[in-house]
Amino acid sequence: MHAPFRRLDRYVGRYANFVLVRSARIAVSVVVAGAMLAAATPPGAAAQQAASTIPQLTVGRPLENARPVLDGRVDEPLWQQVPPFSAFVQQEPDEGAPATERTEVRFLLDRQTLYIAVICFDSSPDDIVVSQSRRDADLDDTDSIQVLLDTFNDGQNAFIFGTNPFGIEYDGQVMAEGQAGQSNRGGFNLNWDADWIVRTQMTERGWEAEFAIPLKTLRYSPGQERTWGVNVLRNIRRKNEQVFLSPVPRGYSLHRVSVAGKLGGLALPARRDVKLLPFVSGAVNDEKSLRTDTVSRTGDVGIDVKWGVRADLTLDLTVNTDFAQVEADEQQVNLTRFPLFFPEKRPFFLENAQLFELGQPRSIDLFFSRRIGLSAAGEPIDILAGGRLSGKLGGFNVGLLNMQTDSAVNERTGRTLAPANNFTVLRLQREVGRSTFGAMFVGRQGVGDRAPAGDYNRAYGLDLGWQASTNGRYTAFLARTESPASKGGTDYAGGTSYTYTNDVWTGGTGYTQVGERFNPEVGFLRRRGYRSVEGRTNLRYQPKQWPWIRRIQPHANFTAYLDLQNRLESSQGHWHFFDIQTLSGSRFGYVFITGQDRPRRPFTIYQDVTGRRVVVPAGEYAWTYGEFEGHTDLSDPISATLAHKVGAYYDGDYHGWDLTVGLRAGARLLSELGWKRDDITLAGGRFRNDLVPMKVSYAFTSLASLQGLIQYNKQASSLSSNIRLALLNRSGTGFFLVYNDRRDTSPFTPDELLGRSFIVKYTRLLDY
User: What is the rounded distance in angstroms from the CA atom of residue 701 to the CA atom of residue 22?
Assistant: First the structure.
């Protein structure tokens, strides 16, 4: 056995036993510590101190039938009647200092719509940075505005609406202050698409924006003289400066809902709205892998319905669901013996997606929506119909989802790829202050003639997110799965973690255990039959003596995995002691990656289209490699990101490159060319793989764009293309043209073209 393995095996085994025996005692200690911290603060003192620094705003009320003209210029007499708020405060670079550029924000509410006007004054308007033009694009590398609305005034959940000088629409949902789930999985859903309007203009004052957000787009408690939480973030990109309406401590983001200001004087009507989203689509497919007629022509129609049952509860229905317009997955290279995670991109599953999360991110997910309507290889399976009810009911956050899929059959062989299935998810969650606790059920039931007897899987879970102190959060979950005995029967998984964050330091630790037969078939599970312990720390230091340095940020994390007999299976270490962010926005550093693995049986780490394989034998391995990583200012017209890896891997050597070059012509034309090479020499053989992705996007307007994703994969000897023309109207709906192409680049097959398709889809929002 390798010496590092022996030492770590003894240490981690002892620590795991300690955690198992003392877990209950640790939990009690955390509770007591939290109570002592709370007791150390005089009653009401913290609340009074916080209240004294929270901005208090009042919404304006226009005269009857008076509405602002949305042209992106805030110069109408109607706006001048609303007192502006302008006392913005820096978070970066000089925390607590006044903003270096003036910002004015105004709120106006009529019976149906919330209007927001923002003037971003700028002493040098010609230097305003506009680097994004796509809906929901990243707003960090462009001048931008983001508005947070805590419509239930609960300090936990909120909506975010944002834009930049180009006038893009950016919206998302915040849950549990963006830290829902174990290990801060991140409760922010950027894929929520709302029905609203924004207009912007570059002016002699700087740049200006006008928002119109219909009340029926939001969820809230109706009534007179209501109060919402509100915050505004302005990004002044050339100065790398972020300023807030209500100060947010360094180490946190706009998602820190509990420190938002207050917007009072809101008169909110009851919400009863119905939205219909019908679609029609047609496709021509040329599949060269089939021996029969390769060209097929299909057409389809379907509809989605969104019904605001109450102001705080929404029912979504879908019939004959189609996701042809969704962009393709980006290919990944797997150098491990565990499965890869591909994120969900289909719109129906993304609204309120955070509510349906329980477990650990990308490791133990009790529910993973890609299991519905997609095969293991990512091929679509027809969704016949489904529904989702989400919102607040009786003091609980409620989520109910039911979907019915059709059977999938191989057209060439007639073999059943998947029987028809019914999927059910039920989620209940209670919020107490900034803490949450809840339960979840996930079920899959095979139905129809092609489903075998006893074809089912069920999962149950409980979770807790306890805000033990202002900066400390404790999370835990416990889950159980049930399957037929032939598929493993019943088993359990659970985990707990604690994270502490302040303005200079973040740290945390966690413990997880997964049974050998734990099997969430409608979830995502990276590995089973293990115990793991982890620790992580991150220091953020801003040196005053070197003004060109924004932050020095050394950080490290380590995770060890043991089998259920407490024998070390593997470990992963990330030791990033040299990490510098510059004032301009670039970053560079050097990190050491350590790893250990003890596979019990051989596994294939590489296989190409010729059938050549490189196998890692069973055994014990330990390695370390170093990696330089850095990027230039990503808001520049030409930017680059580079990672270079050199060292050991398993029983051999590793040399890797990861390079991305970004090119931007104004805000309309954006492109990225990447190159990832893994050159690995092992005792079982050598392989070199190249993955080359290229992305191009041209925006005709903020709602009309042409996007392309072209990917070359040497291992698969494939060249794939996904070209999308999107002419959007409202809430992500509109006209789509999609072209997909797959080609074989190897000399071993007679046909270069593997398959191609041309898809036309039109969807329209009808609002009642």
Answer: 59
Residue 291 has pLDDT above 90, yes or no: no
| 8-state DSSP, 360 | E
> HEC states along 158-190?
EEEEEECCCCCCEEEEECHHHCCCCCCCCCEEC
CATH number at 54-268: 2.60.40.1190
* pTM summary value: 0.82
Cα 443 to Cα 283, 345, 401, 440, 511: the distances in Å are 33, 22, 10, 10, 26
Q: Is residue 31 predicted with pLDDT exceeding 70?
A: no
Place of tokens 């059977």: 407
DSSP string for 468-513: -SSSEEEEEEEEEEE--GGGT-EEEEEEEEEEEE-SSEEEEEEEEE
How far is residue 194's CA from residue 169's CA, in Å, rounded to a whole number?
9
Mean pLDDT of the chain: 87
Element (H, E) at 29: helix 3-40
Type of residue numbered 274: V
* Angstrom distances, CA of residue 592 to CA of 228, 555, 657: 46, 11, 15
Three-state DSSP class for 458? Answer: strand
With b for 16 or more beta-carbon neighbours within 10 A and e for fewer, the 705-740 pattern comes to bbbbbbbbbbbbbbbbbbbbbbebebbbbbbbbbeb
Structure tokens at 501: 């964050």
Report how far residue 377's alpha carbon sits from residue 368's, in angstroms, rounded to the nearest whole number: 15
What is the token pair recorded at 548? 């060109």
Strands 261-268 and 56-58, bridge-based pairing: parallel
Tokens 């973040």 sit on residue: 506
Q: Sign of the CA dihedral 316, 321, 327, 331?
A: positive
> Following DSSP, what letter does each residue of 738-761 receive, concatenated?
EEEEEEE-STTSS-SEEEEEEEEE
Radius of gyration of the chain (CA): 27
For residue 590, the surrounding DSSP H or E stretch is: strand 587-597
The three-class DSSP label of residue 45 is helix
The string of pLDDT tens digits covering residues 523-537 is 999 999 999 999 999
Cα(296)–Cα(412) distance, integer angstroms: 14
* H or E, element range at 25: helix 3-40
Residue 35, pLDDT > 50, answer no
Which residue, among 530, 473, 469, has the nearest Cα to 496 in the 3D structure?
473
If one counts every other C-beta atom within 10 angstroms of the C-beta of residue 500, the result is 16
pLDDT of 292: 53
> What DSSP element (H or E) covers 624?
strand 621-631
pLDDT tens-place string over residues 674-711: 999 999 999 999 999 999 999 999 999 888 999 999 99
Domain boundaries, the chain: 54-268
Residues linked to residue 118 through DSSP beta bridges, in sequence order: 105, 209
